[in-house]
Fold:
Amino acid sequence: MIIALSGEIGSGKSTIGKKLAKKLNYSYNSTGEIFKKLAKEHKMDLTHFLKYAEENMNIDNELDEEQRNTKQNTVLDSRMGFHFAKSDLKIWLKAPLEERIKRISKRDSLENELFETVKEKIEGREKAERDKYFRLYSVDIFDTEEYDLIIDTIEYNIEQVVEKICGYLNI
Structure:
C-alpha cells in the first residue's frame, strides 16, 4: 500500500507521516525534506528556492519521477504525491492558520519573529507552491476533492491522528 500524505504548511505532515510509517513498518519518503535539503545546499530559503526551481525544471522532474516510482509499503509526504504516486490512500491534513504559525515558529526557531512576519512567510510559500503546481500541472494542490481522508490536526494529538488513519484502514 502507498499512502500519500499532503496538507497545509504546518499541519503536521512530517511528524504524522513518520509516526504512521513507523507504526505500519513502512518506508517514509518526504519530497519536502529533499527540497529543504536542496534549498540549504543552495543557501536559499524555501520561498526563494521555489522560484529558483521554477527556472530549473530538472529539480521538479527528479522529484516527480521519484514520486512516480514510489514503492509499496510507503508513506509519501508530498504536495503532489496524490497526483504522481499510485497511492491507495490519499490523506489531507489541515489546521487553522494561527495554530500553523505557532507550530512553524517553534519548529523553525522563529519565536522572535513577529506573528505577521511568520504569517506572511507561510502565505507566500503556499501561494508560490499553489501557483507553481497549477502552472506546471494544472493541479490545485489545495483542492481536497482528490483525498479519501481529511483530518484537522488541531482536533487530535499526533497519536490520535495516526490511530484515526489506522482506523480508516481497519488496522
Notes: The beta strands are 2-7, 27-30, 74-77, 89-94, 149-152.
